[in-house]
Design a protein that fits this description.
By secondary structure, this protein is mostly helical. Helices cover 86% and strands 0% of the residues. Keywords: Amino-acid transport, Cell inner membrane, Cell membrane, Membrane, Transmembrane, Transmembrane helix, Transport.
Length: 56
């Protein structure tokens, strides 16, 4: 395995893991305050994904 490929995959994994962590923290904070799962998080994430795709 080439070292540049390893570093690229490491950065990709860390960025994806940090996104998952931010989503989990958002769900945890909302559930901790309201004691209710807010399913609008998925809608907001999809709008953000489409906005990022459009900006590329």
């Amino acid at each position: 395995m080439d070292s540049t490929l390893f570093l690229q995959q490491l950065v990709n994994g860390l960025s994806l893991g940090s996104m998952y962590a931010l989503i989990a923290v958002g769900y945890t904070m909302v559930y901790g305050v309201l004691r209710l799962i807010n399913f609008a998080h998925g809608d907001i994430m999809m709008v953000g994904a489409y906005a990022a795709l459009f900006c590329m």
